[in-house]
Amino acid sequence: MDPTTEFFESLNHRTPDPLLGRIRGTVRFELEEGDKLHTWLLVYSAGNVSAAQSDRPGECTVRTDREFFDRIATGEANPFAALLRNRVTVEGDLLLYNHLLHLVPGPPGAHEPRDWVRRRRQQR
After folding, report:
1. pTM given for the model
2. What class does CATH assign to 3-123?
3. How far apart are CA 78 and CA 89, in angstroms?
């Protein structure tokens, strides 16, 4: 299974996230792959997140190529930096796109800062 499909399908198995508790809305992802267009619909609902392949419109529409979204899905690319660099385009409710930062993994090799501090203290 490719990284994009794994990412979207994994969202359906997440526990509710308190950081997204007040968020409600839909984001449509349009991912180009050659002459094909893959569409996914991400739904935020009171801390729950779900995703499915769907042609339904969203309150926010995100467009990029599938290969680049694979990099976002694996944490190799940051969604917000991608927006600033015009690697993705966003129409509609930009705040819904911004919450994607809570869903994608961090960069490969990244660590939880609090765990790192605890280990450093134990080494002293």
Report:
1. 0.85
2. alpha beta
3. 14
